[in-house]
Amino acid sequence: MKKTERSKGFVFKQYEEPFQTPFDKLFEIFQELITHTSGDFDEAIDWLRQLDKEFKLTTPEYTVDDFIEDLKNKGYIVERLDMNGAGDGVDLTSKMEKALRRNALDQIFGKMRKGTSGNHKTKYSGRSDENTGDFRNYQYGDSLEKISVTESLKNAQVNHGIGDFSLSENDLVVEDTQFKSQMSTVLMIDISHSMILYGEDRITPAKKVAMALSELILTRYPKDSLDVIVFGNDAWPIEIKDLPYLQVGPFHTNTVAGVQLALDILRRKRHANKQIFMITDGKPSCLNMPDGTYYKNPMGLDPFITSKCYSMAGQARKLGIPITTFMITSDPYLQEFVDEFTTANRGKAYYTGLGNLGEMIFEDYENNRKKRIR
């Protein structure tokens, strides 16, 4: 019987978009809008209606009002009531906040090179629970289930021969393992006014990175810890659930206060590996004075302020805590300060635009997980 030969080669056809329900299509856009509006539901819906008018996103069968009703039914939003029980606006639910973190994570990881799955490792081998694929001689205290029967029997045959088979302790080998390192990270986000100056929105990419990093740690590295702090005239911690609502303010940049708070947080952590990520676009321009006032100087690099920054960076170095600075502007005038700051800490600095900010932070996080920071 003659076999039918199948033709080989490429088949070209018109691209077909993956199927999306009307809700999924609008929900994808809505997540971007609600992030840009810092959780302002009414403003996000206004933008969605404008986009609908321009790009015909909806149909008579499924309108923006239908979409809002589905958001309620699916548990993404809840109507806020006043003291009299009347409607007083709309709040995002924890389900919506998690969806925003997941969306940010998918966006950033979608741009990154795929690698092998699993948790991050150190370069140190030992008695742990993650196999490396290598073998070593059995040592007293090794778990019996770690013994490689096949390799041990092979050694016994080589060492004693098949005719007079015997198995001794010297024949036993175990599959080597590596420690799963754990990391405590503080992410510092600059919320000074310059983060939205000159027509460029820098706070939204920073916010997305924070949401994505938090979702990564919560889902993939649950034993790690992430604390997020914001710094303007002062510094204060924020909850991960509050990231979508983060906004800039009429603030200067108090880098010292931010690093000081980060160190206070990390001192209380038990993890051996600790690090600080700092996202900023401006020079330090503010300090807290002993009498409770602020010293501010937005003009140039003030030696009084920068010297305090270098001192704080050196303090972090003595504690074994590296600071990685992500400068999201390309101002050569500020590079001098960042270089000095990084030298004082023996940390790292990246001069990056907004487009690859997330990718650089995630790659740096993963790389730091593969070594034990000293």
Walk me through what this model shows.
- With 374 residues, this protein is an alpha/beta fold.
- It has three domains: 22-92, no CATH class; 126-178, no CATH class; 183-369, 3-Layer(aba) Sandwich (Rossmann fold).
- The protein has ten helices and 13 strands.
- The strands form four sheets. The protein has a six-stranded mixed beta sheet with strand order 8-7-6-9-12-13, sandwiched between helices. It has a three-stranded antiparallel beta sheet with strand order 3-5-4.
- Helix 1 (22-36) packs across helix 2 (41-55), helix 6 runs parallel beside helix 10 (357-369) and helix 7 (255-267) packs parallel to helix 8 (303-318).
Describe the secondary-structure layout.
Elements: H1 22-36, H2 41-55, H3 64-73, E1 77-81, E2 87-92, H4 94-111, E3 125-126, E4 130-137, H5 149-160, E5 173-178, E6 183-190, H6 203-219, E7 225-231, E8 235-238, H7 255-267, E9 273-280, E10 286-288, E11 294-296, H8 303-318, E12 323-327, H9 332-345, E13 348-351, H10 357-369
Parallel strand pairs: 6-7, 6-9, 9-12, 12-13
Antiparallel strand pairs: 1-2, 3-5, 4-5, 7-8, 10-11
Helix pairs in contact: 1-2, 4-6, 6-10, 7-8, 8-9
List keywords for this structure.
Rossmann fold, 18% strand, 374 residues, 38% helix, 3 domains, 6-stranded mixed sheet, alpha/beta
Coarse structural class: alpha/beta
- Overall pLDDT metric: 85
Q: In the residues, how many domains can be counted?
A: 3
Largest sheet: 6 strands, mixed
Low-confidence region ranges:
113-129
What is the number of E strands? 13
In whole angstroms, how far apart are the ends?
Answer: 71 Å
Q: Considering DSSP H and I runs of 4 or more, what fraction of the residues is helical?
A: 25-40%
Strand content: 15-25%
CATH class term of the largest domain? Alpha Beta
Q: Quickly count the helices.
A: 10
Helix-strand pattern: HHHEEHEEHEEHEEHEEEHEHEH
Radius of gyration: 27 Å
